[in-house]
């Protein structure tokens, strides 16, 4: 059982019900090792030249046993400072202008809410995220003074031999609005942008199977989900697939060009988005690779907190609705913090 974080550590809950935990100190590499375990930690713009972080030692356990791996920590209720709607309004107008001029069909700016904890928050955040269960993937990267942890519903891809699995996850609503969400043309259109683009990016790799669109219910929030399987004809490396798929239109621009990516990077920076938010976070184990999209998490440095959330903007998007969706996603993460042993 881990009681404190005197050294670095990382974990990721995988699709098969197992969780890999790595203990530091970590060495770094520009390529994945041929054997053993390595975590993939990267910035959203893929700018880290050595993203493979190799632990001193690692262990694997069943995900249902993950909460007992960490010491019980009291819940925290941080002081949150609401993000500035004025700045988001300015950027929303810039995005819609780009869409009208034909530069984008869709893009995903990120708004970050700041907070402050009365005590060092790492243990409480890690405890909360470790208790989240499927279909969420618990994940974290922790140092003695800073880190991030979350529970994401979004798998970037899982690669095991010639089998590849990925998903389109886009379109969001409150659970009580599930009925009208199921027939909402704007939300369906946003989801189809993501699903169709993913299929197009994968169809030259092998036999693509796109499953039917469904609604993923996460309790207080719902999303559209389309699962995609590929029987690969030619072996693929994790690095090649990461470059091909990240960022998907669920977190990035459509079309994805140097110009549209640079605009998105600029908007993220102006909105003070953590560099790893929405980036791939993965674990490599003897040729198998699982990567999630690092969303629905909290970043911390000392007692300072950041809680980012993104929203997909298309031509039919409206400012008030997107602002409401951003708050809905942040509130879902805040509820994770209450899912621990109370004071």
How is this structure best described in words?
The chain is 25% helix and 33% strand. The strands form two sheets. Strands 3, 4, 5, 11, 12, 13, 14, 15, 16 and 17 form a ten-stranded antiparallel sheet that branches. Strand 16 and strand 17 form a beta hairpin. The chain is built from seven helices and 19 strands. The chain starts with 8 loop residues before the first strand and ends in a 6-residue tail after the last helix. The mean pLDDT is 94. 44% of the residues are buried. With 343 residues, the chain is α+β, with helices and mostly antiparallel strands. The radius of gyration is 19 Å and the shape is globular.
What class, by secondary structure content? alpha+beta
Mean pLDDT: 94
Instruction: Give the termini distance in whole angstroms.
Output: 20 Å
Give a quick account of the main beta sheet: strands, pairing sense, barrel closure: 10 strands, antiparallel
Rg value: 19 Å
SSE run: EEEEEEEHEHEEEEHHEEEHHEEEEH
**What count of helical segments does DSSP give?**
7
Strand content: 25-35%
